[in-house]
Task: inverse folding
């Protein structure tokens, strides 16, 4: 029987994590399904041919899973209390068999963040999983509300536009980021998590979307913006969240966003990205390719995980490719 290396949690660990597993052995398949999807009880007809292909890639708090389950229809009880999981069914069928009103389908849907029962038949499933506590902390930081409690109201997206945006982001995470060695950089891992968590928070109805926007304090906007920019410049190579910058500016995150839009015509994190692009440019100018300096390493050092997007942004800002600057 194939063996599976155990782990304490499907969302635990640091740095890139990968699992690729194919089996026709129900016992081995159940072991993997229980670990990856927090399944606590599974019903399977062992007299019917079984085949499972499972792949997982990700980092701490954020994983992308792809499963293909063939054979007899199967039911399971899942305890997903600590997991925010978004699913997309690309083949077969998946149905919730308890009080869950959400209908699983081709577009992104949210699995219940609680114990639930489900049943599948010839299932092909792509899912994105995030640690619930980390998502809740991220939401609290975006809102500037310590002790904020996150609760999701429904599993259907708030709009077709947000569903499409989230689907594209999930595709990009799987294609370009989570399976990349660039994820060995803590800053890139944190940026990937924040990007995914922000998209999920804006896609599904929850107490996060129930919160009203906080208007900026117009008397403090100029000073707050200056403090925010100074903090960014002093900590440019550190991992910074919107909440970190807002705290340094002594403003709420939403107030800071409004102030940046009004005075700099950008967002705080967009301005931070511009500063990091300038830092990458300065390093490329001084770098020596003969000494082993590379565009990829320099870009990753300043938080740019996708080489194509970095090159496009760089060319738009400086009129040449980053490689031209490095080799100049």
Result:
């Amino acid at each position: 029987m194939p063996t599976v290396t155990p782990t304490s949690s499907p969302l635990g660990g640091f740095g890139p994590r990968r699992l690729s597993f194919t089996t026709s052995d129900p016992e081995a398949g159940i072991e993997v399904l229980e670990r990856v999807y927090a399944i606590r009880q599974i019903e399977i007809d062992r007299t019917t041919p079984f085949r499972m292909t499972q792949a997982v890639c990700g980092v701490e708090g954020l994983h992308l899973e792809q499963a293909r389950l063939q054979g007899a229809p199967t039911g399971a009880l899942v305890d997903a209390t600590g997991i925010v999981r978004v699913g997309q069914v690309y083949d077969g069928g998946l149905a919730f068999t308890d009080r869950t009103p959400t209908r699983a389908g081709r577009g992104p849907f949210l699995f219940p963040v609680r114990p639930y029962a489900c049943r599948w038949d010839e299932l092909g499933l792509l899912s994105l999983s995030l640690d619930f506590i980390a998502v809740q902390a991220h939401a609290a930081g975006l809102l500037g509300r310590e002790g904020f409690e996150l609760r999701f109201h429904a599993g259907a997206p708030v709009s077709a536009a947000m569903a499409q945006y989230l689907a594209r982001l999930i595709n990009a995470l799987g294609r370009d980021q989570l399976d990349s060695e660039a994820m060995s950089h803590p800053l890139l891992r944190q940026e990937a998590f924040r990007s995914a968590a922000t998209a999920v928070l804006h896609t599904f109805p929850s107490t996060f979307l129930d919160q009203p926007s906080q208007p900026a304090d117009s008397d403090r906007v100029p000073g707050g913006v200056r403090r925010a920019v100074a903090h960014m410049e002093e900590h440019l190579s550190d991992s910074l969240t919107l909440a970190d910058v807002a705290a340094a500016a002594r403003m709420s995150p939403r107030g800071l966003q409004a102030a940046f839009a009004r005075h700099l015509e950008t967002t705080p994190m967009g301005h931070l990205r511009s500063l990091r692009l300038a830092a990458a440019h300065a390093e490329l100018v001084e770098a020596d390719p003969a000494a082993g300096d590379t565009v990829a390493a320099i870009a990753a050092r300043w938080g740019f995980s996708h080489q194509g997007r970095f090159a496009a942004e760089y060319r738009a800002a400086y009129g040449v490719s980053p490689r031209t600057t490095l080799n100049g």
The longest helix spans residues 268-286. The chain has twelve helices and eight strands. The longest strand covers residues 115-131.
